Amino acid sequence: MRLEVDIASKTFKSAAGEQHDVIAGVAFTLDAGEVGVLVGPSGCGKSTMLRILAGLDHDFQGRVSRPAGARIGFVFQEPRLLPWRSVEENVRLVAPLANEAKLSALFEILELKAHRNHFPGELSLGLARRVALARAFAIEPEFLILDEPLASLDVALAARLRDEIAMLIGGRSVITLLVTHDVDDAVRLGDRLFLLSPRPARVLAELPIRTPRSKRGDAEIAAITLDIMRRINGAPAERDAS
Amino acid sequence: MPRLLSFAVLLATWWIGSLFAGDAKLPPPPTVLTVMIAEARSGDLFFHLGLTLARVTLAFTLAMSLGAAIGYLMGRVRLADRLGDPWLILLLNLPALVVIVLAYIWAGLTEVAAIAAIAINKLPTAVVTLREGARALEAALDEMATVFALPRWKKFRHVILPQLSPYIAAAARSGLSLVWKIVLVAELLGRPNGVGFEIGVAFQLFDIPLLLAYSLSFAAVVLLIETLLVQPFEARLSRWRPRAA
């Protein structure tokens, strides 16, 4: 199973009628079991790209080939839960085949056990994200898309959720595409990083990380992060702690 | 408790009012109650109330289902909106009386004409409300349903319908009050039974106790349906909201 992406260009017209270039050449491939990370500044067109890859946007120049009929698990930037359905119903609705044991395991890992019967409006952003993650993993996706899953969470919470995501991805043979503007997250989770330019997005560099996720030490992570920072900015920069 | 108190105040005002206006113009509550009991004993009250209620139910159901379907279509499909809009504006501004009279002329003084006329009066408001609801549907949730490949029916039931439900409730609420009012006019003009017919009789005989007996029984039925059916339904629909405003 393989994802092949070759987007030559994507433009859209603003309400005022002006033409904007969002993507100006992004090509890569990902195999099952690989985690690709699109790293780029905010507003560089990452979310647009994800919409194209998920088949929500067909208006672009180029080609995207997904495994035919692949189940897609999408964790949107805003969790996009159904506010009128409980946490459990939100998950079960998209994954009618998931059995109780699997759901329990998911809820256990994502620390949602106590929240099964809550409505999304009663949850914090961190919890709502976890529900969105549970929903995406419950369908046993063949293609998993994570759009800034750690944005707007405090550092400790983000780190915990990152470990949970790593654990969930670890046991599965799934094509994973993660989008983030946080280089540290990218280095900790990714197998192959694609550095994107500011809008319109191009791939500036492709960096494979050969050490398995669980074996990456802090020193190695710091070194790779520094290398990426240098490539992006020409000089080491402060870590973007948002 | 406050409800009961408020009801008692209403009753007291009525009683005091009847003392000033005189029995002939505004009979006191006991007089009306006596008539009500007599009408109930003879079975007339329930007969007429039942018929009116049946007409309301039929016309309301017809107008709501048709109006919801048309409104949804007009909110989702631009061409349907363009085509339907002039008709909608015409129907919205057509006086109820015109519709009822025309229906009776064209279809005769029949049950079908009465129910159709009532339904046609309610239809456009249902269409307008549901059209707004369909326009306000969340694109983000639509995309979510598409990505996760929710089957059509599931998507309608769990994603679309809950978003429309406040609009459906609003249309039902305003529509019901409209139907309550119009059904009596339709009965007065062209039916040989029903609360509207009885009120017409009372009017011709200047029988104010009879008139009040029927109007108040009718009001009681409306109130009962509102508290026992409409309000619990609305409460159930909004139970997911963290705190109702």
TrEMBL record, chain A:
Keywords: ATP-binding, Nucleotide-binding, Transport
Coiled-coil segments: none
ABC transporter domain: residues covered: 3-223
PROSITE patterns xref list: ABC_TRANSPORTER_2
Pfam families: ABC_tran (PF00005)
Molecular function terms, GO-annotated: ATP binding; ATP hydrolysis activity
Keyword Nucleotide-binding tagged: yes
Keyword Transport: yes
Family: Belongs to the ABC transporter superfamily.
Function: Involved in beta-(1-->2)glucan export. Transmembrane domains (TMD) form a pore in the inner membrane and the ATP-binding domain (NBD) is responsible for energy generation.
Protein name stated in the entry: ABC transporter ATP-binding protein
UniProtKB/TrEMBL annotation, chain B:
Residue intervals passing through the bilayer: 45-75, 87-106, 208-230
Residues in ABC transmembrane type-1 domain copies: 49-229
Gene Ontology CC entries for this record: plasma membrane
InterPro entries: MetI-like (IPR000515), MetI-like_sf (IPR035906)
Protein family membership: Belongs to the binding-protein-dependent transport system permease family.
PANTHER family: ALIPHATIC SULFONATES TRANSPORT PERMEASE PROTEIN SSUC-RELATED (PTHR30151:SF38), ALKANE SULFONATE ABC TRANSPORTER-RELATED, MEMBRANE SUBUNIT (PTHR30151)
Protein name: ABC transporter permease
Annotated source species: Bradyrhizobium valentinum
